[in-house]
Structures are given as C-alpha cells and as structure tokens.
Design brief:
heterodimer; A: mainly beta; B: mainly beta; seven-stranded mixed sheet; 11 strands; 55% strand
Chain lengths: 109, 116
C-alpha cells in the first residue's frame, strides 16, 4: 500500500464547518475515499472522488482534490453532534485500500 | 441491499479454542476482504478473495485461516490465537472492475474478538 497521512484530531463547535486534511503519495490512485467510523461500529463510506475531478459536493460534504500536491480534504458544513467520529481518508492500489491514521473529530456544543 | 453482515458481533475465546467469524453480502460483489483493526488505529488488510479465490494474503499467521465457500460468504477460522490478536475484525466487499466500477469497499459492523 501507499502512505496516506492525515491530522489526528479536530475539535469544532456545533454549527461551524469542519475541514479534515489528507495527503497521499500514490499518484496512480484512480479514486480516493472518505470513510466515517463511529465508536464501536464498522466503517461507513461517506464519499469518494475520481482523480480527474477537483471537487465533489454531496449535501453537507465537499471534497477537494489537489492532484499536483496530492492533497485531499473533506469539508463538513454545519457540523452536528452526530458528526463526532473518526474519519479516514483512503486510496486504492489494485485491491488494497490504504487508510490514513484517522482524524478524530469532536463536536462541542 | 447494501449490507455486509458479520457474526458474531462479540466473541471471547481462550488460546486453545477454535472458533469462526462469518460474513455475508448479497450485493453481487465478487471481491471480499478481511481487515483487522486495533483500537484507535486504521484497519489493516489481512486477506482478499476475488472470484472466490484467495488473491492476497498479507503475511498473516497461519492461526488465521480464511475460507470463501461461495460468492456471498466469507469465513475466518481462528485457532490457537494469542491475546495480541484481540481486535475488531472487519469484513468488506466490493465490485471488481467493470461498468460503473468506483472501487469502494462496503464494510460490515465488525466482530470484536477478545482472546484470553
């Protein structure tokens, strides 16, 4: 697998926007993904972006991809308490999905 | 149906026991995966099956034995495990390349294993 790095913690006030950042090294990645994991649960696919896209918006989620800098970000608008979770970015190399370390997002009232 | 179902949700076993984890999907996916996840860490790939054949083994110890009886089922047989094998074991499935392929993996809720 390839290296995927992301910041470990983010604290955000309810109603504000959250931005989670990720960098990856595999320039051949076709798709990049964001997964959410709530405590004690499995991984839920939030969204993905095709590598020839710069941006993808899906309701409160906006994914930005800077392929030149190999930088991926996930913006969550109007963050709610239910958004508290660990967020993993991931890229795919053939069959292997390589995850970043995960960003723990804590939403405070 | 976009679910991957894993059983049991929780399992406690001794180091001499033999047990199995089970995974089922009915999305018609022909790739299935086992991942191991320790607390506060990302999932680590263990095995990949494509078209019911083992295609990737990430140097997993032989005390873990995967089996894919058919395209919907994936098992992980456990024998003589160690306490450090305690973890959340996640099953996932995905399409293989073809029309509409986007490569995402669909994960189950996991089986939390404790080895005493």
């Amino acid at each position: 697998g390839e290296d995927v790095e992301q910041s470990l913690f983010l604290s955000v006030r309810e109603g504000d926007s959250s931005v989670i950042n990720c960098t990856y090294t595999d320039s051949s990645s076709t798709y990049l993904y964001w997964y959410k994991q709530e405590p004690g649960a499995g991984l839920q696919l939030l969204t993905y972006i095709f590598s020839n896209m710069d941006m993808k918006q899906d309701q409160r989620l906006t994914v930005l991809l800077n392929k030149k800098d190999k930088h991926l970000s996930l913006r969550i608008a109007d963050t709610q308490t239910g958004d508290s979770a660990i967020y993993f970015c991931a890229d795919k190399d053939d069959y292997k999905l390589s995850f970043g370390a995960g960003t723990t997002v804590t939403v405070r009232a | 149906d976009t679910e991957v179902t894993q059983t049991p949700k929780h399992l406690v076993m001794g180091m001499t026991n033999k047990k199995s984890l089970k995974c089922e999907q009915h999305m018609g996916h022909r790739a299935m995966y086992w991942y191991k996840q320790k607390a506060k860490k990302p999932p680590e790939l263990m095995f990949v099956y494509s078209y019911e054949k083992l295609s990737i083994n990430e140097s997993v110890p032989s005390r873990f034995s995967p089996e894919c009886p058919n395209s919907s089922l994936l098992n992980l047989h456990l024998h003589a495990l160690q306490p450090e094998d305690s973890a959340l074991y996640l099953c996932a499935s995905s399409q293989l390349a073809g029309t509409g392929y986007t490569g995402e993996l669909f994960f189950g809720e996991g089986s939390r294993l404790t080895v005493l």
